[in-house]
Amino acid sequence: MSKLSHNKLAAKEQVLEQFHSGMSLLAGGFGSAGYPTLLYEWLYETDCTELDIITSGVAPADKPFQLGFACLLRDKRIRSLTLTHAANNPEVGRQKVEGTLKVEAVPQGTFVERIRAGGAGLGGVLTPTGIGTPVAEGKQILHINGRDYLLELPIRARVAILRAEKADKMGNLMFRHTSRNYNTVIPTAADMVIVEVPEQGIVEVGEMADNEVMVPGIFVDLIVPIPKGGEFFER
Q1: Predicted confidence (pLDDT) per residue in 73-92, tens digit
Q2: Which of 11, 51, 69, 209 is 20 to 30 A away from residue 88, measured at CA?
Q3: pTM of this prediction?
Q4: Do residues 214 and 174 make contact, with C-beta atoms less than 8 angstroms apart?
Q5: How far apart are CA 11 and CA 33, in angstroms?
Q6: What is the crossing angle of helices 37-45 and 67-74, to 10°?
């Protein structure tokens, strides 16, 4: 489907065609705010393995909004995680110690800047954050104007999944309050962008006010309506 399409509403089958073993996946959300619960559930329903997931962080496994992710992790279908924190999900640490999961911890500000760099086509970002800590291990350090900086490489992914609260059928997106978090940057840094939106939040082209558009539709490929009552899922 062209990013210029005037109707990007997608059926489940269209979305599942985009999921493949070994793919890199950039997922939106901070806690439950802007978290793509339905799309994670659909990903779990596939047989995809060896996933490289990039996300701000993971919540405790018993949180209903992230059951899809928790099941992927439990079944060891995730090959690597790039994230900003995982302290409240001991399964991440357990698998890392076992050697079955590669984990890269990234400071939050660096995390979003690396995504922004990936979307803008930059070669990386320079930051003093992490100098003198394990974050700097194996990374290039540049000395500029009397100060050391880490060269942090850009982040891009094959597929991005996120949640918006309102969208028109062309893919213009609006996020609610703190659900804007990283969700306004992520769509720029993936080849295929899939967004779940409550069905009552999907409107016709032209029905969104100018100041509601937080991500232009040119960045969005597929829109998935979340049915009423389908906010969280049991597994």
Answers
A1: 999 999 999 999 887 788 99
A2: 51
A3: 0.92
A4: yes
A5: 24
A6: 30
